[in-house]
Every structure is written in structure tokens, then in C-alpha cells.
Amino acid sequence: MKSCKFVVAAATAFFAAGAVHAADAEKAKGLIKGSDCLACHAEATKLVGPAYKEVAKKYKGNAAATDMLVKKIKAGGSGNWGAIPMTPHPNLKDEDVKTMVDYILSLS
Q1: Model pTM score
Q2: Which of 13, 29, 56, 87 could be 108's S-S partner, Cβ–Cβ 3.0 to 4.6 Å?
């Protein structure tokens, strides 16, 4: 009986975590749509800037990527993907940028 309760508890935790992740993804998509990001980026196709899936692939397994990308988005600049600079976004909230970055990095 104990093992049955454990399995149910584990399954509940697993699905609850997935639901939170899905909610975070939806929040991130909304934040991206509400910003100017889509003027230069798309999920799977390179536009002016790299596709989000390219970004996820480049930084896969890099534990420092989230913090670095949050700073890069806020400050702008060039060099990581060529000479075309990314516009700075200093008015975006750090937690919103992190939500967007976490979503983008999940696309790998």
C-alpha cells in the first residue's frame, strides 16, 4: 500500500511540474509577442538574428547561458552571431527576460 501511495504522489508531482512548465512557456510566448523580439527572431528560422532553436542549440548544457543571455538582451550588442547588433532592451524586467530565455533554451 505504501508503494502505491508513493507512485501516486510521484505521478502527481511529475504532472504538476509539467503543468507549471507549460504555463511558463505560455507566459514566455506572451512576453515575446508583446516585445519587439519577433521583428528580428523566429523560433525555427533565421531572420535578422538567429532562430531561437539555434540559440538553444548553441548554449545547450551551458550553465551560465541564462544569466549571460539575460544581460545580453538587456544591454544589446553584437559579436555572438555576427556583426549585426541586437538592440538593447533596458526597460524589460529581468524576471520577464529570464522567463523568455528559459523558454528559448528549452527549445533544444
Answers
A1: 0.79
A2: 56
